[in-house]
Structures are given as C-alpha cells and as structure tokens.
Design a protein that fits this description.
This protein has 155 residues and is α/β, with parallel strands linked by helices. The chain has one domain: Rossmann fold, CATH 3.40.50.1010. Helices cover 46% and strands 12% of the residues. Strands 3-2-1-4-5 form a five-stranded parallel beta sheet, with helices on both faces. Helix 5 crosses helix 6.
Length: 155
Amino acid sequence: MHKLRIYIDTSVIGGCFDEEFQEWSNKLFDEFIAGKKIAVISPTTIDELKDAPQYVKDKFKEIPVEYTELLIFNSDVELLAVEYIKNNAISYKFLDDATHIAFATFYKIDILVSWNFKHIVNINRIRKYNSISLVNGYSTIDIRTPREVLSDEED
C-alpha cells in the first residue's frame, strides 16, 4: 500500500506547540510516528529550523527515520522557485516559501501541508504555482492544512 508522502514546512512542526494548530499538527505527527504517512522535509526546512526553539527542532526527531524523507537541493528546484517569483506568484522576500513549493513539486510529493495561509495555503497562490509548474513541465501540487490530510478515524 502506498503511504502518502507529505511535505511539511516549519509551520507544521511549530504548529505542534501553537494553541491554534497543535491539535491537528500533533495528530499528523502521530500518523507519521505510527508509519501511516511519510514526513518529507527539505534543506529549506532544516535551515528555517535553525532559528527555532530546541523543542521545535526536537519534534521532527520523534518520527522514526524510516518514515521520513529528506529531499536533495538541486538547480531545478532553484529555477522553479525563481519562476514562481518571476511570474508573480510570490515575492522574492519569501523565497523560502517559493522553495518549499518547488521542492514538493519537483519531487512529485503527494501533498504539501502548511499553516502559512498568506503565501502557501492560499487558493489564488496555489493556482498560480500550479499554472507556472505546468508551463515549466511539472505536475501540479496539492496544498492543504494538516487538518485536511488526517486519516479518517472511521476507516
């Protein structure tokens, strides 16, 4: 059975400790820990975590290594992120957010999850990202919140 590969940005990890998001982020982490889904991160995620409190850094380590995947940076990811910026899907100021989208798109991750409603989980931006991806020969990416990707308890 195919396990969903879910790209998580730092908002999802930090969300485990945020009153507004902790219920859903922690349930998603429980699914990663149980091996129901694969948690995917990138060097961008790791860079962003450098400034996070230690308990946030340690949260990702709770997931067994066999249920995690670290993507490799390459020039195609960088070029796709630049295309998002050049085509006004997002501004250069938010290059890291563009890079998260580019990683998940390039590596054909099943779903990208985030709590970043301004730059990532935003229908108008998602449409722009996906149209730019298609023009550049890539597939579209499904972008959701952690709450939307949890397993149905009744299954």
